[in-house]
Amino acid sequence: MSTIAIKNVTKAFGDVVVLKDFNLVVGDREFVTLLGPSGCGKTTMLRIIAGFEKPTAGEIHIGERVVSSDKVFVPPERRGIGMVFQSYAVWPHMNVFNNVAYPLRIARRPRGEIREKVERILKAVHLSQYASRFPSQLSGGQQQRVALGRALVAEPRLLLLDEPLSNLDAKLRESMRFEIKEIQKAFGITVVYVTHDQTEAMAMSDRIVVINHGIIQQLGPPTKIYQRPSNQFVADFVGKVNFLRGEVKNGRIELTGLGQSIPYDGIYTGKVIVAIRPENIFLKPDREGTLKGRLQNMFYLGDVNDCRVDIGGEVIRIIADSITYEDLRENQEISLHLRDFLVYEDDGKDDHTKIAT
User: Fold this and answer.
1) HEC profile for the chain?
2) Is residue 54, in this structure, part of any structural domain at all?
3) Of 94, 151, 158, 216, which has fewest CB within 10 angstroms of its CB?
4) Which domain holds residue 330?
5) Is 325's pLDDT higher than 60?
6) Span 302-323, average pLDDT
7) In the chain, how many domains are there?
8) Mean of the pLDDT values across residues 88-93?
């Protein structure tokens, strides 16, 4: 079984603690993404799993085997893993076939086995027709497929990917997301994926681990991470969101400085912060909405109408249906209908760690 158990892992570089009491279990054949901003510790965690870094404290188990602890350290080449880096790291003097075959040749596998396995992998990553080409003759996406094929050819129990798509253009990045996911399903392997791109994480993952300052902020499937973020940091980092301060009074939240309120029957009293996703606000040219505002400007993006609306001194973002671009006009007085929102306790600090309800 290709499971991973990370137990109470802490990692410090001198006086700087980059991971603190990190705990995570990754199931067999699961696709788990470590998501967070630059410097949050996600790549360090991946390197610890791979064996390129030793934890300051804690243990790493791969399957039933302890690969890192205060008494045990198994080097990367003996952990049964494949790894794909942000840089393609393909050999420029070798053609595609030999790049992918390299791990098997190092392991001194028979020539017939090497050919059989390499041809199978090249077919899986859609590179069969490029087997004799050199990296300089390939696009960025094709080079990334070479790196992926090389990681898979030795049939690893575990595949680790460190921001492998960040150097690709937007359309190619999108297509590669689905290819990697399909390859993972086809080979039945466990994947730990590192990215700062929340769209990548949402599209590919069975579960997402949101990290900030070396601490897990939330762990769960993409739907839960997006729809019910556990705190303001997660709400802000995963997707787009408007934050409005207010105070709970008589079954409503009076929005600070706006002269408007919204209905509320949750658990909080006193000062709160309201989080509203832009797509959960509907614009209508009537006077019967939850909030009222003035359409400041609109940006037609083809599939959506990206709007900014002044609701009395605070400008919020609204993602509306593209057809509204023809129906609305700038400076128009409009109503805002809220489909959903979250409420966080407000202690006056912008630490983004309060739990929502």
Assistant:
1) CCCEEEEEEEEEECCEEEEEEEEEEECCCCEEEEECCCCCCHHHHHHHHHCCCCCCEEEEEECCEEEECCCCECCHHHCCEEEECCCCCCCCCCCHHHHHHHHHHHCCCCHHHHHHHHHHHHHHCCCHHHCCCCHHHCCHHHHHHHHHHHHHCCCCCEEEEECCCCCCCHHHHHHHHHHHHHHHHHHCCEEEEEECCHHHHHHHCCEEEEEECCEEEEEECHHHHHHCCCEHHHHHHCCCCEEEEEEEECCEEEECCCCEEEECCCCCCEEEEEEECHHHEEEECCCCCCEEEEEEEEEECCCEEEEEEECCCCEEEEEEECCHHHHCCCCCEEEEEECCCEEEECCCCCCCCCEEC
2) yes
3) 94
4) 240-345
5) yes
6) 95
7) 2
8) 86
